[in-house]
Amino acid sequence: MRALAPTLLAASLGLACVLGYRGAVEIEAVYPLEDVDAVRLRLPDSPLSVLGDPVGEALVVSGAWYSVGGSQASAAANAEAGRLEFARDGRFAELAVIIPITSRDVVDLELDEVTIPADRDLEIWNGVGDVEVAQVEGNISIDLDAGHVSVFGGAEGIGIRTGAGDLEIVTTGNTEAHTGRGDVELVQEGAGGNDLIVTTESGSIDAVLRSDANLDLAIVAGGDIRIQTRTVSTVTSGRFNREVGNGNVKIWLKAPRGNVTIRLDESL
Amino acid sequence: MLLAGLAALLCIAPAVGPAGAPATAAPTASSAAPEAGGVRGTLVIDPAADGSVTVRDSQGRVAASLVLRTGQRAPVELPPGRYTVTDDFGPPRTIEIAPGGTVTVATTPPASPPPPASPPSPTSPPPGAAPPPSVGAGTLGAAAPVEPAQPSATRCGGGSCRRWKRIVAPLMSAALPGCGQLVNGEPGKGLGMFLGAASLGVGALALKLSEDPLASSSAGLQSTTFGSEVAGAAGFGMLTGGLAMLYAAQIMDAYATAAGKEHPTPFTRHRLSAQVTRMATIGLKAGDPAADFYADWSVSVMGQVARRFSVGLADLGVKYGYGRTSIQAGPRLHYRFYDRGRVWLGAGAGVILQGTIGPREQVLANTVTVVSRNNGFAAIPYGLLDVRLFILDRWSLDLVPRISAPFGTRFYRGDGALPSRAVTFELGTGVGVYF
Question: Which residue from B334, B326, B340, B330 is spatially nearest to B418, judged by alpha carbons?
Fold first, then answer.
C-alpha cells in the first residue's frame, strides 16, 4: 500500500490532457458598399490583411472558421456555428462576428484577406492579430489588444493603438499612433508636412521625413536622440524641443525606453 | 490569498485532536517539574492505538498531554492525587496516583473491527500477554518496565513548546515560506521550504513572462505550435500546482511542529469536510494558441453520512470570461477505501452542472441590433480518485486525478472552453479541512 500513492501520483501526472478533434470551414463573402463612406471591421482574435481596390465597390472577405470538438461531428458543427454579420446605417457599415454562447471560445475565425474600395474610410477593432493595410487612401483607424501593424496609405489620416507590437507606417496623412511595446518606423510620403504624433512605451522610433520645413519637434527618449535634417542636426538624449519656421508640422515622438532617430529622405 | 486564509484559520482553530484532546504533546511544565519536598507517583501510559492522551487533575487543569504511537509506553511523574485520563477513542476515566506508586493505563483501541490476524510486530503486544489493565483499576504500586516518552512530548521542533508559536509560526510561513520553521527552531527545514517555494515561483513566473503576447498574432500558425504550447502549459501547471501544495504544506507543518503534532491522527469521524481544489488540464484550442492550460478552482462541501461515505455539493465556482459568466456546482458521492496513518485514498463520482450567460444583443453600425443565443448549459459527469495526505489531524493536502466528459461546452476563466464530449483527464491539487 505504501507504493500505491506514489504510483497513483506518477500515473496521474501523465493524464492531464483533453482528447478532441479539430474542424475547419472556409468562407468567402461579398458585401456591396455603394453609398458607403466608412467601414468598420469588428473581429475576434485574427490576423488581418486589408487591401484597397481602386476600382472595387464591395467588401470582399475570405478565410476560414477553425474549431475544436469532442468528436469529428461536433468539431464540424462548431466550425459552422459562427457567422459574419454585415449591417449598414446610412453611409456607415460594419462587419462583425456573431458566435452563439454555446460555441464561444471553441471556434475561431482567421481571415486570409479583406478587400475594400480604396477610397473608403476603414476602422478595425480586433483582439490579438497582426494587421496589414495597404492601398487604402481613406482615413484608417486601428485598435488592437496586441499585434504588429503595417499601414501603407491612409492619406486622410491614421490613428493606431496596439497593446504590443511593432508599427510600420508609410503615409502622406497625419498620423497619431501608440504601441505599448514595439519599435516604430515612420516614413512620410509625398510632399511631407503631415503631423507625426507617436508614442512607444518600450521601443525605439525611426522617422524619415520628406520635408524639414516648419517643424515643431518635441522628442522624448530614454536613450539617444539623433536628428539629421538640413534645418536641425543634433545628437542628444532625454528631451529635445525645437521649432523651425512657423512650426505648424508636429513631429512629437516619445520613446521613454528607447532611441529616436529622425532623418530626411535621402532621395531628396 | 486563499492560503493566507488557511493560515489564519489554522491560527484561530482550537488546538484539539480528534476527540477533543489538546494537540500539545508536552506535559505542562508545572506538572513535569518535580515538586520540592513531595513524593511523586508515576502514571505510565500504554497506548493501544496511535493518538493523543490528556491527563487532567482534579481541578480540570491539564497535567500532561502526549501524542503516542501504539506500544510506546510513556511514564509521567505526577503529584499524588486524582486524575482524569482522556484518549481519542474512549470515555474519560479516573485514576488515583499514590505517593511513590505507579499506575499503568492502557488507552482504548479504535472502535473499527480488528484487522486480519497478522504476525506480531515489534510494536504490538506479544500473543498471550496479559490484557492491559483497565484504566479505572490501574495497577497500583506495580513498577512496570517503561520506555522513555517521545521527544515530541517535551520539544516542539528544534525549540521548546510555546503556545504563542502556534499562532506566529503559521502566520510567518504564510507571509514568507519557511519563516514559520525558523520560528520553530528548524532553520534547515525552513531554508529548504523557502528555496523550494522560491524555485517553483520563479520558474512559473519566468515561464509566464517568456510568453510572447504576439506569438499567436501571425497568420498561418494554425496548430503548428501545438507541441511547444503543450510543453509550456504543462510546465506552468506543474510549477504552480507544486507551489500551491508546498505553500499550504509548509503552513500546516509550521503549526504542526509548534503544536507538537509530529504524527497527525486524521479525523476519520468528521461530519463535514471542505476542499478547495484546482483541477487542471492541458487542452486543445481553436485558433492560436493551439493548446492552453485550463484551471478550474472550486470549493466542495461534503458531509460524511456513513462511515467512510460522503455526499455533498462539489465544484462550486464562478468563471468570468470575455462577455460571459458561468456558475457551476454539482452533487458528488465519495467513498474512502483506505485510511491508515496519515494517508487516505478514496474514489468518487459526480456531475458538474454549469450554466453560462452572456449579452443577448450586439449593436452593429451603431444602430442595428443583432440578437443571438445568450445562455448555455453543460452537464459534466466525472469519476475521480483522491489521495489525501494529513499534516494535521483536520487538514489534508489533496491530489485528485479525475476523468470527465462535458455534455455542452464547458467554460473556464478567461477565454478557456472545452467542447462538448471531449474526454478530459484532469489533475487536481488542493487543501481539505474536516469538522
Answer: B326
DSSP SS3 for A188: strand
User: Which stretches does DSSP call E strand in A20-101?
Assistant: 21-32, 38-42, 48-53, 58-69, 83-89, 92-98
Report chain A residues whose CB lies below 8 A from the CB of B376: 101-102
Q: Is the Cβ–Cβ distance between A106 and B379 less than 8 Å? A: no
* A10 interfacial to chain B (CB closer than 8 Å): no
pLDDT tens readout for residues B54-64: 888 877 777 88
Across residues B266-292, what is the average pLDDT?
A: 90
Range with lowest mean pLDDT among A89-93, A125-129, A193-197, B13-17: B13-17
Which residues on neighbouring strands pair with residue A25, listed in sequence order? A65
Asked whether the predicted pLDDT for residue B126 surpasses 50, the reply is: no
Residues from chain B that touch A105, judged by Cβ atoms under 8 A, are 285-286, 321, 409, 411, 415-417
pLDDT value at position B136? Answer: 36
Is residue A133 within 8 Å of residue A150, measured between CB atoms?
yes
C-beta of residue B66 within 8 angstroms of C-beta of residue B53: yes
DSSP secondary-structure letter at B36?
T
Backbone angles phi, psi at A155, to 5 degrees: -60, -25
Could B214 and A146 be called an inter-chain contact, meaning their C-beta atoms sit closer than 8 Å? Answer: yes
Contact present, B71 and B39 (Cβ < 8 Å): no
| CA of B113 vs chain A CAs: smallest distance (Å) | 19
Whole-angstrom CA distances from B217 to A19, A66, A71, A98, B209 are 25, 15, 27, 21, 17
Distance CA A195, CA A249 (A): 5
Q: Could you give all domains of chain B from N- to C-terminal order, each with its CATH number?
A: 266-435 (2.40.160.20)
Burial (0-12, 13-18, 19+ Cβ within 10 Å), B82: exposed
Rounded to an integer, the average pLDDT of B69-92 is: 81
- In Å, what is the CA distance from A159 to each residue of A142, A156, B56, B100? 6, 10, 80, 96
Per CB-CB distance under 8 Å, the chain A contacts of B375 are: 101
Q: Which of B316, B312, B315 is nearest to B303 (CA)?
A: B312
Q: List the grid coordinates of B64.
A: 500532561
User: Grid coordinates 477513542 are at which residue?
Assistant: B89
- β-bridge pairing B324-338 and B395-404: unpaired
What is the overall mean pLDDT for chain B? 79
Closest to A70 in 3D by CA, of B356, B413, B424: B424
Nearest CB neighbour to B216, from listed A96, A105, A128: A128
Residue with cell 506552468: B236
List the single best residue of A43, A50, A106, A125 to mutate versus B (max B Cβ within 10 A): A106
Q: What is the pLDDT of residues A16-54, one digit of tens each?
A: 888 899 999 999 999 999 989 999 999 888 889 999 999
- pLDDT score, position A13: 54
Confidence of residue B6 (pLDDT cuts 50, 70, 90): very low
